[in-house]
């Protein structure tokens, strides 16, 4: 009996005790370790190649907020879906991939995302949408109520027209080519028309419904037009370079729907800057990833900037006063 | 129960290891928490003061700008178009939602907004606060914060009275709607610590500025706590929070800085976690060491206790196997040598007892053999003496005188007596040597036979026999018969002088716990003096003279020897002339 006990002391004791101590130390160490970071997949849907800057701004904003591409965020984007008929299948594809969030750029893209995500809880962040309430995307700007929220603009369209007239005070008749099937364009046109009346200028509207008609619109700018005013219009935007070239050749001042087109040669713009609105949208996406519901995240209004392109002014023989330059936020020299 | 030593030692060991550590840990954690909370609070206060300064500076700057423009409006060489231009320049900064110039009647002269520079649809503001208050007081007016209907962004109106430089009278008011959103950017540009957030709450408890626009846009409300410290924050979680109540021109801005407790007190929490971990690790180590140490102490004690139990139970071959050099080792060695001594002592005692017993047995046998031989060998010469004495008596009939005949008669008588004595001694001797064959014996039968043998002696006597019920016993029938023969013949003999003799035979009530039965023979004879009781059962011991009662003095000795050989005992009670009672015990016959 005594021998047994002595044998137990030597063999039984030390090893289990040591093993327990090691196991517990490991457990404690494990407690201090940070759990593996969550990764997110963001699907992007866009119809205007010119608006890709928005995605760049979004990514920049996300990076600032700690959501870094290829580290903890993967973006699914195959470039702008120029063919509007394919929008729904692209949106459906994103939903089937079970993305964590959809970033939709433009109103048609957001509407496609809305249709595809119906019945799912995949959040959608749009940037920009002119009138999210009118387009049926949200209940109200303050309480979107569904799975969609984002950044809006559009209220600035009147001021944009004012800015064009301010830069070129001699303008009397303005050519406005637009697609009557584009919700954003329609809304912008309404605002611009009101302002035109106040400014006592005439809008020469021209409907385009397909690429051929756009080409036709470029080739047949009315003789009496003093300027061209582009609405936020996906269809028209696809041929923006051609329009810019035609306008310069015709020595016509132009106003584009966003700041980026000014960099491309449009004379003036007053509106959102894609990078900054993309960043604004990134803040919303980050909040959703942190647990906020899109229904509770108010739609934000994009910040607006006034821009003027001095090179274009020179090309069309226009003299820009210092007063204008003082008021411009962005000057392309 | 024996384990209690181990438990107590373990508890003491662990307690000694953990107690101080725990105490230090608690003090450290408590102090750490207090210090950390103070530091976190200090950090929040620094942030709120900085923001308060910047917010105040922001409004002061706006005011200065507006004053400057207001004065510019007074420049006589400026026409309205140039005034308009100045306002347009001002609004292009995006700080103002709208700018309005009112005349001394409260009528809008110019009204431009961020989204439209067209000064159309001018109206009268003669009743509005932004006209009445600065106009009547001559002071700058700040409206309460309100939210834009479309964008939900917070705005405040600043109205600055414009003085006619010549008359000193107020001849106009410059009204500016200020976008509080610019303060969001100011807050967003702050470098904040992990888990920290800064926001501004107006007098109505509405959040008007936050680095996260959604918080403001959704109209979040926050009830300011009474005092700084650990409070419920904007998200309803526990935070370290500080509030700086900034007043600027009657406008109240409550700048709140909060930091999640988990972040703010992270170092203190880490201390606690580390302390707890250390305590746990120490607990394990102390338990392990304590366990081993306690085992080293308790194990030998237990082994010793077990050995002691075995030894006390009689197993003297057990040894405590402890080789340690400490006190326990000494104790074990002492215990072992004690056991060895005890063992030696006991075995030597046993040996002595065995030797003595063997010696006694040998001498007993010798004695018995001697007694037998003597008795046996004496019979032959005695028979010769008796025979020749008898022959001599027959042959000398009429030849011998009366004296010689008397002598010869005495010889014959003595030889007869000696013969009886030798017979009795042989019986006694045989009783001691005979092999016992015990079996169930019915006493009535034996007693009946013995009485039959005693019949000649009863002749001419009047004896009343009382024989009670007697249980069967376990005994050798031949030896037992001798017992009854001796006792009953004694009873008959010692009642000879009684006119009415009475002899009682019986058994005492049976003791259920005992396996023995007590039998007795009681008579009303001469009895005996109790002081000689011890002599009754000795060989050749007689309490009465030969002349009174013949006998050899061997009978009761024989009785005792037989009863004792049966594992029983024998004793007697009596008084002179009041009879005697002889008791003896025998093993009860087992139930069949």
Strand order of the largest sheet of chain A: 7-6-8-9-10-12-13
Described by strand count, sense and barrel closure, the largest sheet of chain B is:
6 strands, antiparallel
Overall mean pLDDT of chain A: 87
- CATH level 1 name of the largest domain in chain A: Alpha Beta
The helix content of chain A, as a percent range, equals 40-55%
Order of helices and strands of chain A: HHEHEHEHEEHEHEHEHHEHEHEEHHE
The CATH H-level superfamily of the largest domain in chain A is Response regulator
- DSSP strand content of chain B: 15-25%
CATH superfamily of the domain at 436-587 in chain B: Histidine kinase-like ATPase, C-terminal domain
Rounded to an integer, what's the Rg of chain A over CA atoms?
28 Å
How confident overall, as mean pLDDT of chain B? 85
Radius of gyration of chain B: 67 Å
Q: Structural class from helices and strands of chain B?
A: alpha+beta
Shape of chain A: elongated
Biggest sheet features of chain A: 7 strands, mixed
Low-confidence stretches of chain A: 1-14
CATH topology (fold) name of the domain at 436-587 in chain B: Heat Shock Protein 90
CATH fold name of the largest domain in chain A: Rossmann fold
Can you walk me through this structure?
The complex is a heterodimer of chains A (333) and B (592). Helices cover 45% and strands 18% of the residues of chain A. Chain A has 333 residues and is α/β, with parallel strands linked by helices. Chain A folds into 3 domains: 2-32; 40-154 and 273-303, Response regulator (Rossmann fold, 3-Layer(aba) Sandwich); 157-272 and 306-332, Rossmann fold. In chain A, helix 3 crosses helix 12 (274-289) and helix 6 crosses helix 7. The longest helix of chain A has 19 residues, at 14-32. Mean pLDDT of chain A is 87; it is low at 1-14. Chain B is of the alpha+beta class. Among the domains of chain B are: 319-433, no CATH class; 436-587, 2-Layer Sandwich (Heat Shock Protein 90), CATH 3.30.565. Chain B contains 12 helices and 18 strands. In chain B, the strands form 4 sheets. In chain B, strands 1, 2, 3, 4, 5 and 6 form a 6-stranded antiparallel sheet that branches. Classes of the chains: A alpha/beta (333), B alpha+beta (592). Chains A and B meet through helix 1, helix 2, helix 6, helix 7 and helix 12 of A and helix 2, helix 5 and helix 7 of B.
């Amino acid at each position: 009996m005594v021998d047994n006990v002595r044998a137990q002391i030597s063999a039984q004791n030390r090893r289990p005790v040591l093993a327990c101590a090691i196991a517990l130390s490991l457990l404690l160490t494990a407690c201090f370790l940070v759990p593996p970071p969550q990764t997110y997949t963001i699907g992007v849907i866009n119809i205007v190649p010119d608006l890709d800057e928005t995605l760049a701004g979004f990514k920049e904003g996300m990076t600032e907020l700690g959501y870094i591409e290829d580290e903890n965020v993967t973006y699914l984007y195959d470039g702008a879906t120029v063919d509007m008929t394919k929008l729904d299948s692209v949106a459906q594809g994103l939903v089937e991939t079970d993305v964590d969030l959809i970033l939709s750029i433009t109103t048609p893209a957001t509407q496609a995302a809305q249709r595809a995500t119906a019945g799912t809880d995949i959040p959608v962040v749009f940037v920009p949408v002119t009138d999210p309430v009118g387009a049926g995307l949200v209940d109200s700007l303050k309480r979107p109520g569904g799975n969609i929220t984002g950044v809006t603009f559009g209220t600035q369209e009147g001021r944009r027209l004012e800015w064009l007239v301010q830069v070129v005070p001699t303008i009397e008749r303005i050519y406005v080519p637009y697609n009557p099937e584009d919700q954003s364009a329609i809304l912008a046109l309404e605002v611009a028309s009101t302002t035109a009346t106040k400014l006592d200028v005439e809008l020469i509207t021209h409907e385009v419904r397909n690429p051929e008609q756009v080409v036709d619109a470029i080739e047949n700018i009315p003789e009496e037009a003093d300027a061209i005013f582009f609405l936020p219009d996906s269809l028209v935007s696809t041929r923006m370079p051609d329009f810019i070239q035609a306008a310069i050749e015709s020595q016509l001042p132009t106003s584009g729907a966003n700041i980026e087109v000014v960099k491309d040669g449009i004379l003036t713009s007053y509106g959102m800057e894609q990078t900054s609105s993309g960043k604004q949208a990134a803040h919303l996406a980050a909040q959703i990833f942190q647990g906020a519901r899109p229904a509770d995240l108010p739609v934000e209004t994009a910040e607006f900037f006034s821009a003027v392109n001095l090179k274009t002014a020179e090309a069309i023989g226009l003299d820009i006063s210092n007063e204008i330059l003082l008021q411009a936020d962005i000057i392309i020299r | 129960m024996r384990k209690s030593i181990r438990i107590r030692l373990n508890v003491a060991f662990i307690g000694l290891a953990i107690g101080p550590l725990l105490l230090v840990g608690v003090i450290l954690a408590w102090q750490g928490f207090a210090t950390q909370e103070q530091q976190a609070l200090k950090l929040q206060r620094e942030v709120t003061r900085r923001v308060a300064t910047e917010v105040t500076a922001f409004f002061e700057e706006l005011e200065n700008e507006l004053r400057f423009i207001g004065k510019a409006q007074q420049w006589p060489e400026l026409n309205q178009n140039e005034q308009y231009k100045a306002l347009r320049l001002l609004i292009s900064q995006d700080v103002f939602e709208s700018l309005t110039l009112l005349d001394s009647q409260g009528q809008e002269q110019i009204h431009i907004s961020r989204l439209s520079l067209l000064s159309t649809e001018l109206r009268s503001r003669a009743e509005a606060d932004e006209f009445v208050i600065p106009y009547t007081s001559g002071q700058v007016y700040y409206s309460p914060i309100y939210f834009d209907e479309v964008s939900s962004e917070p705005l405040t109106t600043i109205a600055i009275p414009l003085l006619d430089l010549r008359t000193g009278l107020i001849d106009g008011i410059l009204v500016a709607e200020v976008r509080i959103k610019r303060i969001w950017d100011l807050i967003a540009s702050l470098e904040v610590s992990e888990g920290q957030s800064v926001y501004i709450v107006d007098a109505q408890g509405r959040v008007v500025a936050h680095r996260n626009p959604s918080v403001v846009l959704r109209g979040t409300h926050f009830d300011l706590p009474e005092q700084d410290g650990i409070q419920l924050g904007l998200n309803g979680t526990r935070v370290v929070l500080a509030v700086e109540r900034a007043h600027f021109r009657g406008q109240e801005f409550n700048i709140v800085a909060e930091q999640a407790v988990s972040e703010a007190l992270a170092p203190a929490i880490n201390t606690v976690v580390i302390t707890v971990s250390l305590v746990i690790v120490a607990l394990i180590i102390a338990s392990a060491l304590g366990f081993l140490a306690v085992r080293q102490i308790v194990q030998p004690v237990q082994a010793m206790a077990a050995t002691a139990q075995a030894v006390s139970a009689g197993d003297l071959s057990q040894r405590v196997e402890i080789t340690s050099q400490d006190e326990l080792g000494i104790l074990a060695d002492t215990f072992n040598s004690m056991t060895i001594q005890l063992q030696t002592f006991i075995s030597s005692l046993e040996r002595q007892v065995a030797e003595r017993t063997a010696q006694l047995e040998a001498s007993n046998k010798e004695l018995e053999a001697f007694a037998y031989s003597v008795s046996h060998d004496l019979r032959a010469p005695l028979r010769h003496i008796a025979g020749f004495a008898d022959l001599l008596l027959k042959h000398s009939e009429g030849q011998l005188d009366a004296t010689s005949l008397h002598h010869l008669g005495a010889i014959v008588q003595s030889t007869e007596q000696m013969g009886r004595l030798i017979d009795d001694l042989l019986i006694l001797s045989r009783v001691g040597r005979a092999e016992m064959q015990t079996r169930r014996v019915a006493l009535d039968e034996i007693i009946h036979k013995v009485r039959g043998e005693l019949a000649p002696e009863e002749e001419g006597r009047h004896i009343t026999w009382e024989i009670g019920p007697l249980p069967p016993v376990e005994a050798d029938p031949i030896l037992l018969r001798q017992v009854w023969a001796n006792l009953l013949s004694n009873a008959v003999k010692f009642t000879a002088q009684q006119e009415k003799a009475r002899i009682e035979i019986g058994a005492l009530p049976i003791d259920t716990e005992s396996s023995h039965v007590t039998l007795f023979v009681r008579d009303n004879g001469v009895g005996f003096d109790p002081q000689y009781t011890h002599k009754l059962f000795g060989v050749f011991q007689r309490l009465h003279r030969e002349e009174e009662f013949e006998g050899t003095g061997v009978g009761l000795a024989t009785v005792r020897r037989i009863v004792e050989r049966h594992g029983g005992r024998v004793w007697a009670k009596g008084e002179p002339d009041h009879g005697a009672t002889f008791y003896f015990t025998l093993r009860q016959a087992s139930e069949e």
